[in-house]
Amino acid sequence: MEIKTDILHGDCKEVLKTLPDDSVDLIFTSPPYADQRKKTYGGIHPDHYVEWFLPISAELKRVLKPTGTFMLNIKEKVVNGERSTYVMELILEMRRQQGWLWTEEFIWHKKNCYPGKWPNRFRDSWERLIQFNKNRHFFMNQEAVMVPMGDWSKTRLKNLSETDMTRDESKVGSGFGKNISNWLRRDMAYPTNVLHLATECSNKNHSAAFPEGLPEWFIKLFTKEGDTVLDPFTGSGTTNFVAQRMRRNSVGIEIMPEYHGMVAAVQTLFPVDAVDLVDAMDGG
Q1: 17 located within any domain
Q2: Closest to 197 measured CA to CA, from 236, 250, 230, 238
Q3: Which neighbouring-strand residues pair with 7?
Q4: Domain of residue 154, residue span
Q5: Helices in the chain by DSSP H: which ranges?
Q6: Are 194 and 150 in contact (CB under 8 A)?
């Protein structure tokens, strides 16, 4: 099976219009955060961020398959000692105006965040990854991301109570419950929604590169071999590199010509015959 990787140059708001409807299985991306990366991406003021992003999210919804998933890595900045609300406003508007389903929220715990001190808060050691879907039923391979049970099971599952041996209904009336005895003699368990990964220390000539393990985990969870992964803010191409290595087709869109133009770097990431470097916009 031939795997294809397209690296497109241009503003994703326009380039996305060239992609077919319902053609992407997973969108994994980290757009410029509000008022950040000004030297490379110009910076978008928090008051205008929702207005800027909604036309992009409308195109993302169009190209995403009904069974697909959109993962958005984003974090509010602190302005004058207070967290901005632009991410929450964006979630609400995507749901209200475009009908996105806000299915889940994952936390990326940065294991190697820089030390520091601030007068009214502690150092940031996490970012959010917000999951959106078009439908309530979507492709999700939970077994692909299972983790070892861990040593805790040797003691916790050794002496089970009567309650542990039956379905323990939720005390808050949610309808959910647990039967701990189901996990006896099992070596693997389903993970939590917190991912513990170090940040990308070698920045790959990009101001905001994330670790390969981040897209890899979600590609495992939400796609299978031969599926298509899209990163509309591809930067140094981490998402596309990981997708190609995992035998997924991928599309990357990048507005900065210096990042798109790193042909030599891309050729070290992907086999030459697997990459199609395309200028989707004039001036590429």
Answers
A1: yes
A2: 238
A3: 252, 277
A4: 149-189
A5: 12-15, 38-41, 49-63, 86-98, 152-156, 213-222, 238-245, 257-260, 263-269
A6: no
Which of 189, 216, 251 represents a domain boundary (last residue)?
189
Q: pLDDT tens for residues 46-64?
A: 889 999 999 999 999 999 9
Tokens of 145: 């991301």
**Residue 161's pLDDT is what?**
58
The per-residue b/e assignment along 252-272, b for 16 or more CB within 10 angstroms, e otherwise, is: bbbbbeebbbbeeebeebbee
CB 24 within 8 A of CB 228: yes
pTM: 0.81
Q: Are residues 154 and 254 in the same domain?
A: no
Specify the residue for token string 């087709």. 249
Helix runs in 129-260, H state only: 152-156, 213-222, 238-245, 257-260
Q: Tell me what pLDDT residue 130 has.
A: 98
Give strand pairing partners of 128.
74, 107
**What dihedral angle (degrees, nearest 10) is formed by the CA atoms of 235, 239, 244, 247?**
-160
